[in-house]
Fold this protein.
Amino acid sequence: MTSPRWTRSAAVSLALTTILLFVWYVATIPAQHPVGPGSYASLLAPRTGGSAFPGPLQVWDSARQLFAHPFLARGPNRSGILLQLGFSLLRVLAGFLLAALVALPLGFVIGLSPMWRQALGPFIQILRPISPLAWMPLALYTIKGANASSVFVIFVCALWPMLLSTSHGVSIVPPAWLRVAHTLETGRVRLALSVILPACAPAIVNGMRVSMGIAWLVIVAAEMLVGGRGIGAFVWNSWNDLSLSRVLVAIFLIGVVGMGLDALFARLARRVSYEA
C-alpha cells in the first residue's frame, strides 16, 4: 500500500518538474518561435555559438531523433547515443572492478595492521587529493591507448574511497570478536571471511557507492579529453556541431544513469546493513 508520505513527495516532485519545464519554456520562447532579429523578443533569447538556446520542445525533438536509432554504429562521431553510453559504462565497470581488486585486500591489510597504516598513510594522503584527470597525460604517454587510459583514470578515482572505507571498517571491528575467533583458533582466511567481512560490509559498500559516483563523473570528462566513443565524447562532438539540444539530451541521460547506479548501491547498502 502506498504511504501518504511517498504520495506527497511524488506530488511535490511532479509539481517542481512542471514549474521548471514551464520556466524553461517561457525563457526560451524566442528560440522555439523565431522572430525578427530587431524585435524585443529576440533580445530575450540566450545565444550560444550563434544559435538560440534550445527549449524543451527542441530537446524533446532531438531526443526522439537520437532514440530512433540508439545503437547505430557508423564510426565514433555517428554512433547511437545508447551505444556511446555502453562504451562509457564498460570503461567505468572495468576501472571500478580493478580498483576493487586492489582496494579491498589492501584495505584489510591497512585496517588490521597499525604499522602498515602508518607506513602507507603518507602515500595515500599525497596521492588521494590529486585530480584523476591529472593522470591522463601520463596514462596516454605510457599506456598509449585512449580506451585503456580512460580505464586507468577510473581506476585511480575509484580506488581511494573504497580503500579508505574498507580500512576504516576493518579497523573498527570490535576487538572482542577477534579475540573470540583467536580463542577458537580460527584461521586467517576464515577470520577475514566469516568475522571481519560481515562486520565491515556496510562500510565497504558505502565506499563502493561513493567510488561509483565519482567514476561516473570522471568518465565523462575523460572521454571529452581523449575523444573516440563514449557519452563524454558524444557531448563534446555535439558541442562542436553547435547542437545544444543533443548536449542537453546527453546530460539528462548521464543524470538518469548516475541516479540508477546510485540507487543500486543504495539498495545493496540497505540489504548489507540489514543482514549485518
